[in-house]
Amino acid sequence: MARPDKAADVAELTENFRSSTGAVLTEYRGLTVAQLRQLRTTLGDDVNYAVVKNTLTKIAAKDAGVESFDSLLQGPSAIAFIKGDPVVAAKGLRDFAKANPLLVIKGGVLDGKALNSDEITKLADLESREVLLAKLAGAMKAAPQQAVSLFAAPLAQAARLFAALQEKLPADGAAPEVAAEEAVSDAADAPAEASTEETAPADS
Q1: CA gap 179, 136 in Å, rounded
Q2: Which residues lie within the region annotated Disordered (predicted)?
């Protein structure tokens, strides 16, 4: 019975890695059952915080293509599998660790990229997706002509706006409002080119 049970555990962990936006590995040595329950409540429904066995997790991580956890899987381990906004999850883990120093954030992975503990802390310092969207809306109101051009653009153009915003915020270190305005400006320049490409076949 031991082997089938272990195989099922590995399969479940592998699926958690594959279906999650990100995963954060922690050590919980010394935390009580009540504290772990509190942490799960704090992280909410979009995070599955699971106590794991290191040997099985190494196998599952490898099967899922995650190679950054091998050297970190030591001591009592638990992983936060993130289904929602990774910034919100990182904030929850960071704040709980501040209040409960026995929780140690060891590393993680986000969209296939390995993160160390410092990078997870930096992630927690970013604005959440909801806040960024609100600031983006504010920037668009401040630039109505650009907003009109954006709304007239194809759906793919709007997707490029959000991609541009995502790139500008962490890379430039600019204030979110400034980055949002720049992203709107970048996206607003593209509809004319897109329109030219779309109407070209009709001229022939």
Answers
A1: 9
A2: 174-204
